[in-house]
Amino acid sequence: PVDRSAEVQEARLKLPVLGEEQVIMEAVRENPCVVICGETGSGKTTQVPQFLYEAGYARDNRIIGITEPRRVAAVSMSHRVAKEMNLPRQVVSYQIRYEGNVTSDTKIKFMTDGVLLKEIQKDFLLQRYSVIIIDEAHERSVYTDILIGLLSRIVPLRNKKGMPMKLLIMSATLRVEDFTENQKLFRTPPPVVKVDARQFPVTVHFNKRTPLEDYTGEAFQKTCKIHRMLPPGGILVFLTGQAEVHSLCRRLRKAFPFRKSSTAKQKKTVSLPRIDLDNYSALPMDEGDEDREAGIGDEEDGGSDLELGDDPAETDPSIPLYVLPLYSLLAPEQQAKVFRPPPPGTRLCVVATNVAETSLTIPGIKYVVDCGRVKKRYYDRVTGVSSFKVTWTSQASANQRAGRAGRTEAGHCYRLYSSAVFGDFSQFSEAEITRRPVEDLVLQMKDLNIEKVVNFPFPTPPSAEALVAAEELLVSLGALEEPPRSGRMTDLQRAKLSCPITPLGRAMAAFPVAPRYAKMLALGKQQDCLPYIIAVVSAMTVRELFEDFDRPARSDDESSKLNQRRARLAQMRRLWAGQGASLLLGDLMVMLGAVGACEFAGCTPKFCEENGLRNKAMVEIRRLRSQLTNAVNAVCPEVGVFVDPKMAPPTEHQVLCLRQIVLAGLGDHLARRVQAEDMLDPKWKNAYKTTLMDDPVFIHPNSALFKTLPEFVVYQEIMETSKMYMRGVSAVEAE
Ligand code: ADP
Ligand code: MG
User: Among 82, 274, 404, 479, which residue is least crowded by beta carbons within 10 Å?
Assistant: First the structure.
């Protein structure tokens, strides 16, 4: 029996999923696997675990497990469910990569999908769990897909052994054919329970023009206009990344200042005409030409149905805007703010990335402003070159975003692009597994004794080409046995020729990092190099240690501040790069120096701020270092490594050893400087040639090796920005 508060009880009754409790539970009783589809906000994540709990799935020391693709969701949903059920957090708990509050009393466990995959490696049958819920399956994250493939085998195995287990797949969209109509995955298609969301109508307004560059500026204009002219109701703005989110928040706060004291005043004078232009101006002078357009305008239909409030008091521009950012890496306390009602007399405005699209439901949103774009990491299939690109989102995502406006009453969605542009969007986003290299997954699967990865029941299989590339890399790293040589073969034939895992491969699979880095960890025992390798691997895995000061400044003042901080970081980089032999370790030595110095200073925000380091990244590196240190000790107890907060710089001899280890891991990422005599085309000036690409690649001006330009280097990755730049470069001896 669950003892919920009256308030929670009342809120629950409004959720559409509650009406389907019996249907869902009956389907679960009668089928090993069930798919539940329901709009975001219909109550799937918060309620379905409670249904299962009340139906007894957590009895007899068993656990209800729920996986989320995002850490944010795992943490905040576990807190929410604990609160709704009036149970302590040691009973409704969460586990994400580095932290959690799981205890022996845990009955409901929210976790990231990566955490569950690791648990499958420890206990393939997941015996503690009576049911696993795969949440947000529509996102098609790589781990979600792999888990569904694995669970499609684990569930029948458990049933055969007389320890029944259930699988629930939950999706915010109706597009679930990849799961239900995939014979390889489920021979009998699982039943689909649809939850009809109580969705209010959302009027979609397209822009007449589509700004190609300054869509944040456009989002700013639109948000200001909505706030000045339209009736109360929260505004949710979708942008693509953290930097954009912060920049828009700053501009909006400046335009509509929010001060605690002014809210109090607002409250007292609520019956008077609320005009207080001394305190607030609708738009600061430098922020655009507000006379140019009187209305929100610019919609295709002329903006006639813009529903300017009937009551002029409702459209008073002096109401402060309560602006909150929301993105995955934001601290949890900050994230939690979006769920609380805004201070009285203010309008809520959340500026968010994709997180707000389906995993979190923000209450009280009536207006959505959608830039129509999304930032994703792209990989070149052949060369592995990666780049972050902002591209158009899919029609399905754009519709999800619009839907956020109709949760509590009828709403409006302002799309900052034309309907013609929308028509050109792809219908759905591609599954992540088809867009990235898969060597890490292949290694994990081999470790699970799935030898023929091609035969694995992927909801959407990666290409044969990607599988072959992964096996080849793993063979070259010594993680898989060499295949027998046998003439010419097609990719598919080669993919079918699966290579068994080696003991080294098993050790590598135990480290939660990419196989190239896992190899370095496995070799790190020599010359007491392990603490350094652990630090470097942590830094390479977390990436983006350094602040990016190359962004354009908004004012002279900001520009001079940026210049100062940039200069300081450059100076620190030189210091961290060390001297003599250390210099050859290049950017990896800089990372090592930065990690060492930051740890020595206690990893404080102040130290990071002063020295151009990203505190979030440094905190994560610190956690990963201790996690990897534990993992190394578990695989190889005799080495007895520990995290030394006063790590001395490596000796000359150790530096040499480190370079060899780095080369062993990054051997396929070798580049040679183009010799003067080969240089027929000026585009090859100071360029390097890699084994995989015809085009030149370069050492970035920020790199420690930019001035030296050694003949041979290895690199962590190639990132395409204004040019093809190698990142994480270190020098290799010419033989
Ligand atoms: P779904 O998983 O179907 O998208 P959820 O179960 O996440 O739906 O959300 C159901 C309702 O619970 C939503 O109206 C949401 O606003 C509310 N809710 C979720 N988390 C919180 C929270 N931390 N605080 C307050 N309300 C919340
Ligand atoms: Mg959900």
Answer: 274
Helix or strand (DSSP H, E) at 236? strand 234-238
Residues 366 and 203 sit within 8 Å (Cβ to Cβ): no
593, containing H or E segment: helix 586-600
Select from 357, 716, 726 the least CA-distant residue to 541. Answer: 716
**Could you give the C-alpha distances from 115 to 71, 375, 512, in angstroms and in order?**
10, 25, 10
Q: Compute the distance between CA of residue 537 and CA of residue 531 in angstroms, rounded to an integer.
A: 10
* Ligand 1 atom nearest 77 alpha carbon: 20
Rounded CA separation 430/428 (Å)? 6
User: What tokens appear for 342 in the block?
Assistant: 């805004």
Q: Which of 361, 365, 400, 404 is the best mutation target for the ligand 1 pocket, counting ligand atoms within 8 Å of the beta carbon and taking the most?
A: 361
pLDDT tens-digit map of 442-454? 999 999 988 889 8
Which atom belonging to ligand 1 lies closest to the Cα atom of 363? Answer: 16
Atom of ligand 1 nearest to the CA of 38: 3
Per-residue H/E/C for 342-410: CCCCCEEEEEECCHHHHCCCCCCEEEEEECCEEEEEEECCCCCCEEEEEEECCHHHHHHHHHHHHCCCC
Write out the H or E segment, with its range, that includes residue 657: helix 652-666
Give the Å distance between the CA of 395 and the centre of ligand 2.
20
Check pocket membership of 614 for ligand 1, CB cut-off 6 A.
no
DSSP-H helix ranges across 477-585: 491-496, 503-509, 515-523, 530-542, 556-576
For the Cβ of 359 lying below 6 angstroms from any atom of ligand 1, the answer is: no
What is the rounded CA–CA span in Å between residue 295 and residue 304?
9
Distance CA 318, CA 312 (A): 12
* Ion ligand 2, residues whose Cβ is below 5 A away: 45
Instruction: Give the helix/strand (H/E) hosting 167.
Output: strand 166-171
Distance CA 554, CA 364 (A): 32
pTM of the model: 0.80
Measured between alpha carbons, how far is 321 from 345 in angstroms, rounded to an integer? 9
Q: What is the CA radius of gyration of the chain?
A: 27
The angle at the Cα of 341, spanning 69 to 403, to the nearest 5 degrees, equals 50
- Measured distance CA(724)–CA(703) in Å, rounded: 14
Residues 6+ apart with CB under 8 A from 340: none
* Regions of the chain with pLDDT less than 70: 258-318, 332, 381-384, 486-487, 491-492, 494-497, 551-552, 554, 677-679, 734-735
Instruction: Give distance in angstroms: CA of 13 to centre of ligand 1.
Output: 13
Q: Is the CB of 372 within 6 Å of ligand 1?
A: no
Q: Which atom of ligand 1 is nearest to the CA of 42?
A: 3
The rounded Å distance from CA 76 to ligand 1 centre is 10
φ/ψ of residue 673, rounded to 5: -65, 135
- Which residues neighbour 703 within 8 Å (Cβ) at sequence distance 6 or greater? 586, 587, 726, 727, 729
Query: If you take atom 18 of ligand 1, which residue's CA is the nearest one?
Result: 361
Global ipTM: 0.98
